[in-house]
Write a structure and sequence with these properties.
Blueprint: H1 2-15, E1 18-22, E2 25-28, H2 29-57, H3 65-90, H4 99-111, H5 114-129, E3 137-140, E4 143-150, E5 154-158, E6 164-168, H6 171-174, E7 177-179, E8 187-195, H7 201-214, E9 225-231, E10 236-244, H8 251-268, H9 284-297
Antiparallel strand pairs: 1-2, 3-4, 3-7, 4-5, 5-6, 8-10, 9-10
Helix pairs in contact: 2-3, 7-8
Length: 306
């Protein structure tokens, strides 16, 4: 036991060599190792604590997954800040001596690190205000997908192609964000439909409603609706409006299923879907001038007689 203690004291004396003086404290190799080890341990333990809070502790409450993720992240950030202060103080570093360093860091933040700080502050705003939360279907810029995780610097969004896109948090603060499930997951879809002039309008409305009500992904309440939107160049333009909660993350599939069913119903009842048509009318003078112009462009046969 005495030998082990002497060995530790000899090892400590070798690493307890002052490297620099910070205020009244001396920074040694042992101090640096101490701060690195305990800082890494702090981040590891707070990460496990956040996971336990989200997946076990708060599951007993009525909070949704987004609220649990936000609460876990906020608690983790708070413990990290307090833990770093404790680590610095126990390492013998006087925090008042960090004023000069804080000024230098502030200048650095103003120039090179402003984007990182902007994203971190934006992440805190997202966690507190919760304009988006884990599980939401969102569209920001050219990115559309489900929010998988909200981190301190960025947010992970998973698209329908199972591709994870890392979006900086500042995007959700400075740009327009479409949140399909912010209040609830009930969304109305609009499917344009065109029929030929002369079609039975009442039959068209009835068929469109039946198609929507027979689709299992369309809600009965609110009921599907049909609107005659305009008299188009080639036909009557209707719009089928249907509500859904199950396919808001795959709206293309719902639209496709309804279009297939509409086409089958229209074909069965003889309702024509129009295509663009143009009618050109020429009066007698215009027709005569066109024929003269075409005859003038035709090549003339050469006279081969001797």
């Amino acid at each position: 036991m005495t030998t082990l203690r002497l060995w530790f004291e000899r090892l400590k004396s070798q690493f307890d060599i002052p490297l620099l003086t910070f205020g009244s404290a001396q920074i040694t190799i042992l101090t640096i190792i101490y701060m690195i080890v305990f800082t890494g341990l702090l981040f590891f333990l707070t990460g496990r604590l956040r996971k336990w809070i989200v997946e076990q502790l708060l599951t007993r409450t009525k909070m949704d997954i987004g609220a649990r993720q936000a609460a876990g992240s906020i608690i983790r950030y708070f413990i990290i800040v307090v833990g770093l202060v404790i680590i610095l103080q126990t390492a013998g570093i006087d925090l008042t001596a960090l004023n000069v360093l804080a000024g230098a860091v502030g200048i650095g933040l103003g120039f090179g690190l402003q984007n990182i700080v902007n994203n971190f502050i934006s992440g805190l705003i997202i966690l507190f205000e919760r304009p988006i939360k884990v599980g939401d279907r969102i569209v920001v810029g050219n990115v559309e997908g489900d929010v998988e995780r909200i981190g301190g610097r960025s947010t992970e969004v998973v698209t329908n192609d199972n591709i994870t896109i890392i979006v900086p948090n500042s995007k959700f603060i400075t740009e327009n964000v479409i949140n399909w499930s912010h209040n609830d997951r009930k969304v109305r879809f609009r499917i344009p439909v065109s029929v030929a002039y002369g079609s039975d309008v009442e039959l068209v409305v009835r068929l469109l409603r039946e198609v929507a009500m027979n689709n299992p992904d369309v809600l009965d309440n609110p009921a599907p609706g049909v609107r005659l939107m305009e008299f188009g160049d080639s036909g009557l333009n209707f719009e089928l409006r249907a509500w859904s909660t199950s396919l808001i993350h795959r709206k293309g599939l719902l639209t496709s299923n309804l279009n297939f069913a509409i086409l089958a119903a229209f074909t069965e009842h003889g309702i024509e879907i129009p295509f663009p048509q143009r009618v050109v009318r020429l009066d007698g003078n215009s027709l005569e001038m066109l024929m003269k112009h075409e005859s003038a462009d035709l090549p003339r046969e050469k006279d081969t007689r001797p």
